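[SOLVED] Need 3D model of a two-part complex

Original post:
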Amino acid sequence: MKPDPANGNGIELRGLKKTYGSPKGPVHAVRGIDVAVEPGETVALLGPNGAGKTTTVDMLLGLQQPDEGTVSVFGAPPGRAVQAGRIGAMLQTGGVLRDLNVRELLAMMASLFPKPLDVEETLRLAKLDGLADRRTERLSGGETQRLRFAVALISDPDLLVLDEPTVGMDVEARRAFWSTVRELSGTGKTFLFATHYLEEADAYADRAVLMARGRIVADGPTTEIKALVGSRTVRATLDGIPIEALERLPGVTRVERHGEAVLLASSDSDQTLRAFLDAYPDASDIEVRGAGLEEAFVQLTADEQEEVAV
Amino acid sequence: MNDALGYARYELLRTFRNKRLYIFSFAFPVVLYYAIAGPNRHEHNFGGTGIAASVYFMVGLAAFGGMTAVLGSGARIAAERAVGWNRQLRLTPLSTRTYFRVKVLTAYAMALVTLALLFVAGLTMGVHLRAGNWLQMTILMLVGLAPFAAIGILLGHLLTADSVGPAIGGVTAVFALLGGVWFPISHGAMREIAEAIPSYWLVQASHVGLGGSGWGATGWFVVAAWTVVAAAAARRAYARDTERV
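Solution:
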């Protein structure tokens, strides 16, 4: 049973705008965005620094008021969802209170919510079992991140908003973290996470929302976003051929040159490769690979910058 | 109310775990008391105040320690802001009102310990007061600390974790000096300035110890006015702080 997003059961950002004053003049952090997230969805919010991700997250959480537009979380303003303990968040600025141990800090936060999760259960979910009696100021960076995740979970929220959640975690911790997210998303919780690790969005999100310069430049399943840009890249060593000639090859959507290497993004790599080899038989070191979200991201945000520059 | 109690319990626990606090709020005023009042312990009319040096400095250093203790909430708030904890708290049902109440409660818990320590030190220096006078003096001092509790919260939301320490030290030093913690302020322009300052009235609580009168209208007015203004400023600083990115 997939609820209709229009009935207000999920998360809805409509026409959000936010501008700050700064000594250099107004900064248009968010320039009008619309996002709807259904309950149970896991959505990645991607974008370079200054794209407006954190401002968007802040408005979603009710930490900042939008200049224009509305935010609705499970059919209510964010403040109401916070009161009910339905939102948990790992904010980007990263620290925890000192002079308490891990278990005490979680118990302290639990005492503020109407129906908190059991502290021991939360410790288990955030893989903090062995650290319950450790003082928070003695935790490593990765352990602190896990504690901040536990703090986000303690209210037993329906929506988890995670801003750069795996910063400072090693590979092992990162894998464990995402397996917990999977486990929880299986129980119907909704996840929205902002990340710079594009492979995480690719691997763990149902959907990616790409932001650049305060706007959404793409919104869809990660597979669709990749298709949008060109699904494969052909890479070869080939000297002295002008980029314009390569751009005329069938299927090619974009060409880059790095020294002797050329990079062809293609929507149909089979056709491109045949035509490429016919035209340039001395090309060597040929490689064909699926474009990651990273390439998609670079292209989409580059387009956006050109559009703004015009 | 349950949530406030649970929250206050942990807030107190972590405040009393902070070792630096023991040195500055607790040990420092007691050591200073013995150092200053010790050599003058047989002085029964200190600086013409009609008050024994042992009582004068007991109250003076209790005022000093109490100010340090309640202003200390500013250091804790600034440290919490530095790690983004106040933003995390805004994602809980904890109300602004409860947040402030718990901060004030914690600050007063610290101040009470300081006062108790100084009073015990006073007893060892031969201070004898009637039970009613101890009580009256304590209540006056707790009331007199109210503006400083508000100033502590104000500084915590106004300054960064780096600058709040020196600021609190400076504020305490100036108020202690002008309030007459180190020497009695008996006449002249100094006295007129002092009477407009809440720390003066903190130190004046020593008169009660001798069965003398309390503050009178001026004292109550000055303390109330400072409290109202500082609390309003603290509210504004908090509101501005929470609007920021």
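Edit: Chain B touches chain A at residues 2-3, 6-7, 10-11, 13-15, 17-18, 79-80, 82-85, 87-88, 90-94, 243, 245 (CB under 8 Å).
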